[in-house]
Write a structure and sequence with these properties.
The complex is a heterodimer of chains A (257) and B (279). With 257 residues, chain A is mostly helical. Chain B has one domain: MetI-like fold. Chain B has a two-stranded antiparallel ribbon with strand order 1-2. In chain B, a hairpin with a 5-residue loop joins strand 1 and strand 2. The longest helix of chain B is centred in the first third of the chain and has 34 residues. The relative contact order of chain B is 0.12. The mean pLDDT of chain B is 89. The interface between A and B is large, with 76 and 72 residues.
């Protein structure tokens, strides 16, 4: 009995901060207070009038879409070369290309800030895209490599021996077989870019900011339930992407474990 | 595939790696060894001035020590809370297990800003804890946020999924038959846990400790928002020096210190993991 209660308590500890955002987003109070004195749509309406946050959300969405497409376009050829290239030192190459994930984002952000400042890339789309690619590429590369590793080379060899050109083998055999991996890589790249905040904090400028950064700045200066409304929408958004992914491909299969 | 084709396919990825990773990191390292003029321009010629300033000021020695100790404390607490949860998930039936896994890992899909904000709702000045304690008759509930307590509570919860993942990976070697054997030979539950379960899950514990420690040292959003500018850790200081004070050489030096802590931790982990394999 005590055992069960303890487990329930631990689960509550783990999930409460996200769960409580929902009732708080319907608070009618001016500040964060528990329990809310009354419930209303006040903060969702306020959200509608908050142009800065809306613009930031749009920026994040566009950036995440662009970064996802670029990640696939860059990581797919690289994964193919690493999986089928047959040259030596592929493990070290993979280690180099995924190394950014091992370093603290605060250090990566600072390193980018110093370099970007010299080239006027701070607060630019190009700068933000580079910064996000830095961390989405390793994820995409890993997922795509795993997907490629599960395709038996014999299938491709069979197609080639029957006279298919390398491009045709890839388009007609390899790509269709690794579709779940491509979808998973796209979803992970999108979520990583859309949620990225620390590196972005260093690279955004007064004219161009992302949603997580705008939220961070807002929470830093004011604590009202507005961010609860944004958070509730974001949680539902993430959930929708994951469910969509789960419908299209089993996540477990896609990551290959 | 011809080597030339392979190189061509790799070129874009290598270019991004060079432009956004290798070159900026090399530049960062060199910043730590250059002087700065009062206007903020980098002076030519190598200089150890930044390091001298860093070692001269006891604030930084304290900052590094506090960061390491706080991270160790957070990691230990995370392990303590995640272990029973992970064990429960590991022992659950297959269908419940999947559901519990999703519950444990879903916080990872949600932005750190959102999760930290959730803690402001709970720990804030008129938050959940305050109102519960007030209702229970506590006149002046202790302040839970914008101090070290809030930072530690927030970090433990935010890093728990990583610990649970590592522990579950380690539990793979844990055959229920071992526990049953120990129990049937008369070992009380506590002894089974201490003598059978715990030693077998040691690799998972070690992995989780490494992962959570490293993530705590580099975490920034949670200490910044829950610390309210009153809790000083390595990551928050790097940000302040880079963005507020604009002392990039000092921020670069502190970054190298953080990387050194990472290096030492990884080295220790490698040694312990090898020792464990041989044991």
């Amino acid at each position: 009995m005590i055992h069960r209660a303890l487990i329930a308590l631990l689960f509550a500890f783990l999930l409460a901060p996200v769960a409580l955002v929902f009732p708080m987003s319907f608070s009618a109070d001016r500040v964060i207070a528990w329990p809310p004195s009354a419930f209303s749509f006040r903060w969702y309406i306020a959200l509608f009038n908050e142009t800065a946050l809306r613009q930031a959300a749009l920026n994040s969405l566009l950036l995440a879409l662009g970064v996802t497409l670029l990640s696939l376009a860059i990581a797919l050829p690289a994964a193919l070369a690493i999986a089928r290239g047959g040259f030596r030192g592929r493990d070290s190459l993979m280690a180099l290309l995924t190394a950014p994930l091992l370093l603290p984002t605060i250090v990566l952000g600072l390193a980018l800030l110093i370099v970007f400042a010299g080239y006027g890339l701070i607060g630019s789309w190009l700068g933000l895209a580079f910064a996000h690619l830095l961390i989405t590429l390793p994820y995409a590369l890993r997922v795509l490599s795993t997907a490629l590793a599960t395709i038996p080379a014999a299938v491709e060899e069979a197609a080639a021996s029957l006279g298919a050109a390398p491009g045709a083998v890839f388009r007609r055999v390899t790509l269709p077989l690794m579709t779940p991996g491509v979808i998973a890589a796209a979803a992970i790249s999108f979520l990583v870019s859309f949620d990225e905040v620390v590196i972005s904090l260093f690279v955004v400028g007064p004219k161009l900011t992302t949603l997580p950064v705008a939220m961070y700045r807002y929470v830093e200066s004011r604590t009202d339930p507005l961010v609860a409304a944004v958070s509730a929408l974001l949680v539902l958004f993430s959930l929708a992407i994951v469910l969509l992914l789960d419908r299209t491909v089993s996540l477990r299969k896609a990551i290959g474990k | 595939m011809k080597p030339r084709t392979a190189l061509l396919l790799l070129l874009p990825a290598l270019a991004i790696n060079l432009v956004a990773f290798l070159a900026p990191m090399a530049n960062l390292a060199s910043y730590a060894f250059h002087g700065v003029s009062p206007s903020g321009a980098i002076l030519p010629g190598l200089s150890l001035g930044t390091w001298a300033a860093l070692f001269d000021d006891s604030f930084y020695a304290e900052l590094i020590l506090t960061s390491v100790l706080t991270s160790l404390g957070v990691t230990a607490l995370t392990l303590l809370l995640a272990y029973p949860l992970a064990l429960f998930v590991h022992r659950a039936g297959p269908r419940t297990k999947n559901l519990l896994m999703v519950a444990c890992l879903s916080p990872l899909l949600i932005s750190a800003v959102v999760r930290t904000y959730g803690w402001l709702v709970i720990l804030g000045d008129h938050g959940v804890i305050y109102s519960v304690m007030h209702a229970l008759g506590v006149e002046h509930p202790p302040k839970m946020v914008f101090n070290q307590t809030g930072v530690i509570i927030g970090l433990v919860q935010i890093l728990m999924p990583y610990m649970i993942l590592s522990l579950l990976a380690g539990f793979g070697r844990l055959d229920p038959a071992f526990e049953e054997a120990a129990a049937s030979l008369g070992a009380p539950p506590w002894t089974v846990l201490r003598r059978v379960v715990l030693p077998l899950s040691l690799p998972g514990i070690l992995l989780g400790f490494l992962l959570v420690f490293v993530l705590t040292v580099s975490s920034f959003i949670t200490p910044k928002l829950l610390g309210g500018g009153r809790v000083f850790l390595l990551a928050t200081e790097i940000y302040d020096q880079a963005i507020v004070t604009l002392n990039w050489p000092l921020a670069a030096a502190l970054s190298l210190v953080t990387l050194a802590i990472f290096g030492v931790t990884l080295g220790l982990y490698g040694r312990l993991a090898r020792a464990m394999e041989q044991a």
